[in-house]
Each structure stands twice: as C-alpha cells, then as structure tokens.
Design brief:
This protein is of the alpha/beta class. Helices cover 33% and strands 12% of the residues. A 6-stranded parallel beta sheet has the order 1-2-3-4-7-8, with helices on one face. Strands 5-6 form a two-stranded antiparallel sheet. The two termini are 21 Å apart. Bound molecules: flavin mononucleotide. The site of flavin mononucleotide has 16 residues, from strand 4.
Amino acid sequence: MKRMKLGYFLTGFGHHVASSRHPDALVHGGMNLTKTIEQAKLLEQAKFDFLFMSDSLYLDEKTHPDMFTFFEPISLMSIIARETKNLGLIVTGSTSFSEPFNLARIFSSLDHYSDGRAGWNIVTSGINNTAKNFSGVNNADHDLRYDQAEEFVDISKQLWDSWQDVSPKRLHSAGGFFDEKQPEPINYKGDFYSVRGPLNIEQSPQGYPLLVQAGSSKKGTAFASKHAEVVFTAQNDIDNAV
Ligand SMILES: Cc1cc2nc3c(=O)[nH]c(=O)nc-3n(C[C@H](O)[C@H](O)[C@H](O)COP(=O)(O)O)c2cc1C
C-alpha cells in the first residue's frame, strides 16, 4: 500500500504575510522556545514524518515578517532532537555562507543527537544582499552558487565517509592513531575549496543526513536529481511539480 509522507514546515507565526498580526498569533513567534518544542511534540504524536525549519541570513524591510526574528535553526533542532524520538528533523544549511567542514560537522552532530533523524535542506541563499553580512558585496551569480554547492556537498560526503569502518573505541583505547583503519584525510582541492580532513567526529547513525533540496531552476533541478533524497517544490500545479 502506498503511504503519503507528511512533513510540516514550521515557522514562528505562520506563512501568511500578516499572520503575526492575528489576535491569536503566538507571543514571540519564532523565538518562543517552549511553544516550538510543544509543536514538535504534537507533530510527533500526530505521526508526521518530519519537521522542516527554513533559514535566511539577511534582514531588511522586504523580509517576510515571520523572519524578522527567529532562532538559529540548526541549534534549535538540536534541542528538539532531545525532546522527540521519531520525528525527522530537516533544517536548512547554506552552501554559500558556510564552510563544508563546519556544516558537515554540525549536521553529523545533529544526526548523533537525534539518533539518525537529521536532514539537510541544501540551499545556495538567493537573497542578494546576504553577502553583505559575510564580508562581501553581492552574492555570487546563481549558476556559480550551484557549482560551489556541488563541491560543497561532494566534500561533505567525503568528510562524512572519512570515518567509515573506523572503530572509535579502538582509536581511543590505543590513545592515538594506530596501524589499523584510521580516519583518513580527504585532501580535497577544488575550484572553491581546499579541505584536508578527516572530520573530527565519529560517523553518525545515518552516515549522512537525509539530503533535501528545493531548486526550481535548470541548475537547481539537475542538482536535486543528483543529490537529493527529498525535493521540495513550490509549483502551484501538479503537472509542473512532477
Ligand atoms: C519548501 C521550500 C523551502 C525553502 N527553504 C529555503 C530556505 O530555508 N532558505 C533559502 O535560502 N531558500 C529556501 N528555499 C529556496 C530554494 O532553496 C531555491 O532557491 C528556490 O526554490 C529557487 O530555486 P533555484 O535556486 O534553483 O532558482 C526554499 C524553497 C522551497 C520551495
């Protein structure tokens, strides 16, 4: 029997542009930790497959009111990981404004905290002025951001694999690296990144987080078909979406 998978896109006040003004809107919306945890627990009870939290790294007068203030979502998911048991935890991480070593390590940690429920929504961050928060001026061009994302994901996978078949217990009891299988450097040198590796975290329960992507452009859908296990689409008719 085919079963529908249910996911929930959690935002502080809701997706409607005026939802924060509704008389029954949550106090403090995206920064109401207690209510956020309550909602995650409700989703779990209701048998949802996953909770998704988006992210943006920029604030100005055009920002959706729901995104004026909200917690950094990966650390928030880490808390939710300890408050739930079965819910999938998908959260956004930008390949344009983080380093592969940092993000691979963070998602591996989330996968550990949650016993294998982490998912990474891979975004290239389209809002142009975001670069201004990261010592730049303009974001890299759309297609170039996807080229960078290719390398980023490639490196992340190699870093996650760098602990494959290594016994951390043996490593610790030997008090150092020894002759058997060790976490090996990846020695990656590409157009955008140079990363020695290995990762300094043991392999997580899933090995990799679930990879999720929401690109709609030609480059974006090609990227998704190569890497993504879940694809988000915002198309408004089913023929366009499939
Ligand atoms: C359900 C959904 C969630 C998204 N979440 C984010 C997000 O958290 N952060 C972000 O910068 N972009 C997000 N996006 C935008 C996409 O990453 C992507 O940039 C957009 O769909 C346009 O595709 P393209 O970049 O291939 O042109 C989301 C899109 C969808 C449909």
